[in-house]
């Protein structure tokens, strides 16, 4: 049975999409059958994995709102063991459309349940918001990864996010766990980066992943080639860091691989 991990932080630009793409690709390299669901109308994961969002007509939202079968919209990627549920820009209106639906927080969970057993890991890239789609992702997920940028105001908004997670645990998804807080865009030369690492580790202790993602230009270049970093610059320190993260997650979760 697949493990569903949401990548969430309502702050933009903290590395959610980079993490979703590269963690998923690294799990695929470790031969876990992996699916990435792009749940952000900006569709950066979709383009980053080589699909043009302008050519996408159906996304997870239409599955949630119009009852389209998710298995009909799964795309292959350039990598073995890595599939994608794409997104597209029209989805901005989806939250409004969903407001009147019954069980509106549990739509994504119902949609994913149909294909859950086909994958070892399902990674959901969330948008920078705590709106209904993100609530749906957190309700569908077994756990959440929270990327935190090693920058000024790193902890800003984290209290609100943790509070939202608590509310979801109480009302919608009692089994939701925090898979880990992931420090991203770390620059060894900057005192600030080191201060953030120290502060986050002091606050959140063993909730923080051992793996730290360095600032690495290849990680930001790879998406313009429609590739995860591991397929673009396999020996780069960014790609290696995400491979280490995948190893850390695989070690923590004893997943029996889907045949
Ligand atoms: P989010 O999805 O949280 O908005 P992104 O993953 O899109 O954040 O990252 C924001 C920007 O920072 C993107 O341009 C991305 O390429 C870049 N970026 C993310 N992580 C790194 C990193 N470790 N090193 C260098 N650039 C990064
Ligand atoms: Mg993003």
How is the secondary structure organized here?
Layout (H helix, E strand, L loop, with lengths): L2 E5 L8 H14 L4 E6 L4 H5 L11 H7 L8 E2 L5 E4 L8 H5 L8 H7 L7 E6 L5 H9 L2 E7 L8 H14 L5 E8 L6 H14 L12 H5 L15 H16 L7
Parallel strand pairs: 1-5, 1-6, 2-4, 2-5, 6-7
Antiparallel strand pairs: 3-4
Helix pairs in contact: 1-10, 3-5, 5-6
The site of adenosine-5'-diphosphate (ADP) has 17 residues, from helix 1 and helix 9.
Structure description:
Helix content is 37%, strand content 15%. The protein has 259 residues and is α/β, with parallel strands linked by helices. The longest helix is centred in the C-terminal third of the chain and has 16 residues. A 7-stranded mixed β-sheet has the order 3-4-2-5-1-6-7, sandwiched between helices. Helix 1 packs across helix 10, helix 3 crosses helix 5 and helix 5 packs across helix 6. The chain has one domain: P-loop containing nucleotide triphosphate hydrolases (Rossmann fold, 3-Layer(aba) Sandwich), CATH 3.40.50. The mean pLDDT is 94. Bound molecules: adenosine-5'-diphosphate (ADP) and magnesium ion (MG). The site of adenosine-5'-diphosphate has 17 residues, from helix 1 and helix 9. Adenosine-5'-diphosphate (ADP) binds next to helix 1 and helix 9. InterPro entries: AAA_dom (IPR025669), DNA_Partitioning_ATPase (IPR050678), P-loop_NTPase (IPR027417). This is Chromosome partitioning protein ParA. It comes from Rhodonellum psychrophilum GCM71 = DSM 17998.
């Amino acid at each position: 049975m697949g493990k569903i991990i949401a990548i969430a932080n309502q702050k933009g630009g903290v590395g959610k999409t980079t993490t979703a793409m590269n963690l998923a690709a690294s799990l695929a390299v470790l031969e876990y059958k992996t699916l990435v669901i792009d749940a952000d109308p900006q569709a950066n994961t979709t383009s980053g994995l080589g699909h043009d969002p302008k050519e996408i007509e159906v996304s997870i939202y239409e599955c949630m709102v119009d009852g389209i079968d998710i298995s009909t919209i799964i795309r292959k990627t350039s990598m073995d063991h890595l599939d994608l549920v794409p997104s597209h820009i029209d989805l901005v209106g989806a939250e409004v459309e969903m407001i009147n639906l019954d069980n509106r927080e549990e739509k994504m969970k119902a949609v994913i349940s149909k294909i859950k057993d086909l994958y070892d890991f399902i990674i959901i890239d969330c948008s920078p918001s705590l709106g209904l789609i993100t609530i749906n992702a957190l309700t569908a997920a077994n756990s959440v990864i929270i990327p935190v940028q090693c920058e000024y105001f790193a902890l800003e908004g984290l209290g609100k996010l943790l509070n939202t997670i608590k509310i979801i645990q109480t009302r919608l998804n009692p089994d939701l766990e925090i898979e880990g807080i992931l420090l991203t865009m770390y620059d060894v030369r900057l005192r600030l980066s080191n201060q953030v690492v120290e502060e986050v580790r002091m606050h959140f202790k063993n909730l923080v992943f051992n793996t730290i993602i360095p600032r690495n230009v290849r990680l930001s270049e790879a998406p313009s080639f429609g590739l995860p970093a591991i397929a673009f610059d396999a020996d780069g320190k960014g790609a290696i860091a995400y491979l280490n993260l995948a190893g850390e997650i695989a070690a923590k979760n004893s997943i029996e691989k889907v045949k």
